[in-house]
Task: structure prediction
Amino acid sequence: MTAQEKQNWVSEHVDFSGYVKYLNTSSFTSLDSIGNDNLIHNRLNFKMYANDNLTLAIELRNRIFWGTSVKSIPDYASMVENSNQDIDMTALLINRPALIMLSNIDRLYVDYHSNKWQLVLGRQRINWGKNLVWNPNDLFNAYSFFDFDYEERPGTDALRAKYFTSGNSSLEIAINYTDEWKNNTVAIKYNFNKFQYDFQMIVAKYLENYTLGLGWEGVIKDMGFKGELSYFMPYGNSIEDNAFVGSISFDYYFKNDISLNVSTLYNSDGISNTNAYDTSQLYSESIDVKHLMPNKWSFFGQASKTFTPAIAGSIASIYAADIDMVFFMPQFTYSISQNWDFDVTGQLYYGKQEEQFSNLGNSVYLRFRYSF
Result:
């Protein structure tokens, strides 16, 4: 193969993309004291399409942290390292009192697909959720809505096999890798279409729970209607009770580029004691599908509008009923050019503190992103 032929093969079969983001965070409860944090976040995505059936992928996150939190929080590196996989692909390159640098492989898989089959082996995202905010069916890699800067969302080390039984139905089996059997998840999902709705039924072993799941997605007139239900039954020597986690959502798009989304979450295992939680639980990277929120009943609403092709805005709110916590997240985005984006995001927390409803904390995020 000549050099020209090699170059053509690479250009046709290898895809490379990524971005560099700078995120500045100002955190405060009152204006008497403002913490300032900085993050440079680089992502590199490589995919090789070896032939019509085989794809190999590797995706890396490289992050540099400095600022108030790095200096003031003991062992801050372990908090952001997110090495909760039993196969550790995270490298702590710099760990100094004022600067931390992390490199992490969060996707590494081989994907084989044919007309009827798809087999994926390696670190991947198994996305079984249907709702925007809370996904009780997302057994393998639950994520937090509060962590808005991680758009790709977590992955898991797993083997996934999908068989397309017909044009609108499929059977999917997945098992993730852990050092101990009690910590892993094995699940079977059946997808089908009925009454113009897409349904999914799940039978699983989730950690030390037998699990049944149901999800759906469709429309009521012009309004989107989605839902996910999961029922967990502990087995063995577990002292936990049976738990039910369910979420339903409605979304509607108006002609003037305004969209609305409302959702509710119920967790039978949630807490009702306002002193038994802190706001860090809401955006913890170790969140799990049984505890998408710390409390029992939660309600979500979001309104979004596209003002111009380059300018958009939204405001989201969550009310955690049992613990009297209210969260607001306004966001403004501006597409500077084809590859440059800028956004401003606020996160404001209100709740009970010493029997009084007050502000628990605020953060303002300024973010620049260059994509390539």
The domain at 14-371 is CATH 2.40.160.100 (Porin). Residues 3-13 form the longest helix (11 residues). The first strand starts at residue 14 and ends at 28. The chain has a mean pLDDT of 93.
